[in-house]
Design goal:
Blueprint lengths: L3 H15 L3 H38 L2 H16 L5 H15 L3 H17 L4 H13 L6 H9 L9 H29 L1
Length: 188
C-alpha cells in the first residue's frame, strides 16, 4: 500500500499534465482535501461525544452493570475465563456494543494480556478476537456520523439492519471458531 497510493497520485498528475487538464486536477485535489478535513472533524467530534458518554456510563456504573450482565455469556463462550481477564473482555465488548471501537481497542489489548497471563487455551483467544472484530453493536456511532455528514435525513434509521448484521456476523464467526476447533480436536 505504501507504494500504491504514491504511484496512483503521480500517475494522475502526469496524465492530467499530459492531457492539458492540470487545473481541473488541482481543483479536485483541493476540494477533496477540504472534504477529508470536514469528515475528520465530524468523526472526531462524534468520537469525543460518545467517548464522553462512555466515561459517564463508566462513572455511573452502567458499564459495570452491562459487564456483569455479559459475564455469564462470556464465561460460556470463553471457558475458564475469570478475574481481571473476564472484566477486561466484558468492558471491551460493552465498548463495542456502544460503537466505540477506539475505546474498545486498549481494553481488548488488556484482555488479551490478561488471558495470556491466565494461560487460557488458543480457542479462548480465537473466540475473543472474533467477538471483538465482529462486535455486536447497539449504536453504530461512526456510520451514523458519516451518514449525518452526507446529509441523511435519519442517520440512525439503519439500526435494525446493523443489529441483524452484527448479530449474524458474531454468531457465524463464533460458530466457525467452534467448528474449526472441534475439527482440530477430532484430528488429534
Amino acid at each position: 500500500m505504501k507504494w500504491l497510493f504514491p504511484f496512483l497520485f503521480i500517475a494522475a498528475m502526469l496524465l492530467s499534465l499530459l492531457s492539458g487538464d492540470g487545473e481541473a486536477m488541482t481543483n479536485a485535489l483541493l476540494e477533496e482535501i477540504s472534504s477529508a478535513i470536514q469528515t475528520m472533524i465530524t468523526l472526531v467530534g462524534a468520537m469525543c461525544f460518545w467517548s464522553g458518554m462512555m466515561n459517564i456510563a463508566k462513572e455511573g456504573g452502567i458499564s459495570k452493570a452491562v459487564g456483569e450482565a455479559l459475564t455469564p455469556l462470556i464465561q460460556k463462550l470463553i471457558p475458564k475465563i475469570k478475574g481481571e481477564a473476564a472484566e477486561a473482555v466484558t468492558l471491551n465488548l460493552s465498548a463495542n456494543l456502544f460503537g466505540l471501537g477506539n475505546a474498545a481497542t486498549p481494553l481488548g489489548l488488556k484482555a488479551v494480556k490478561q488471558m495470556a497471563e491466565n494461560h487460557l487455551p488458543a480457542e479462548s483467544f480465537a473466540s475473543f478476537i472474533v467477538m471483538n472484530c465482529c462486535s455486536l453493536q447497539l449504536i453504530p456511532t461512526t456510520v451514523a456520523s458519516l451518514r449525518h455528514q452526507a446529509g441523511a435525513a435519519a442517520p440512525m434509521e439503519i439500526l435494525p439492519i446493523v443489529w441483524c448484521c452484527s448479530l449474524l456476523s458474531v454468531v457465524g464467526a463464533l460458530t466457525a471458531v467452534k467448528l474449526c476447533y472441534c475439527f482440530l480436536k477430532g484430528r488429534r
